[in-house]
Amino acid sequence: MTESVTCNHCGAPLDVPGSTKYLTCNHCGSRLLLKRTSSASYTEVLDNIARETDSLKKEVRHLRVQNELERLDREWGMERERFRVRTRDGRSYIPGEQSGAAHAAKILALIVFLGFFLAIGSTIARGASMSGAPSGFAMGPILIMVSAVLVVVSSIISSSSKRAGYRSARQRYRTRRGGIVSRLDR
After folding, report:
1. pTM of the model
2. In a domain, 73, yes or no
3. Could you tell me the residue range of the domain that residue 92 belongs to?
4. pLDDT at res. 159
């Protein structure tokens, strides 16, 4: 049994056997797909299907890359929050985002703080030795001041290591994001 269909590309009449799925038009040379429904049979140009399939593949690839980029941004937002530092007054900041002036101000405050405590310590030690107090008497206040200085120094070192960790994580994020964005632009 043969069917009569027309070429979807040039409109030429075609007679095909009933079991045929693919054919080539004898008039224009188009490769065709024979489709059947319960009420009709018709042809579709395979090259159009291939183009549409390629277009859909590109769109799906683009969507996958966009989803990967959005996932990376969400993960970075969560990781970034781990680096957040809270101040005593309830404010918070990301250590790597402080200005250089803020960091320099902290170091300057530490230097002033150290100078102040050294001046007080030497005054106490001089006063104790002039009053004839035992030499161990002057050491107590000096040790307390040195302890306070060590607490401040360790706080600054901790902040610096957190800042370095943040900068490293931010650089990894930016590198990964740049790679994904370059794939998005293709």
Report:
1. 0.51
2. no
3. 83-184
4. 64
CB proximity list for 121: less than 8 A, separation 6 or greater: 141, 142, 145, 146
As a three-state string, the secondary structure of the chain is CEEEEECCCCCCEEEEECCCCEEECCCCCCEEEEEECCCCEEEEEHHHHHHHHHHHHHHHHHHHHHHHHHHHHHHHHHHHHHCCEECCCCCEECHHHCCHHHHHHHHHHHHHHHHHHHHHHHHHHHHHHHCCCCHHHHHHHHHHHHHHHHHHHHHHHHHHHHHHHHHHHHHHHHHHHHHHHHHHCC
Would you state the torsion angle of the CA atoms of residues 103, 108, 111, 115, taken in this order, to the nearest 10 degrees? -150
Domain count, the chain: 2
What parts of the chain have a pLDDT lower than 50?
none
The angle at the Cα of 145, spanning 140 to 149, to the nearest 5 degrees, equals 145
Q: What are phi and psi of 161, to 5 degrees?
A: -70, -35
The pLDDT assigned to 112 comes to 81
From the list 153, 167, 174, the residue with the least C-alpha distance to 98 is: 167
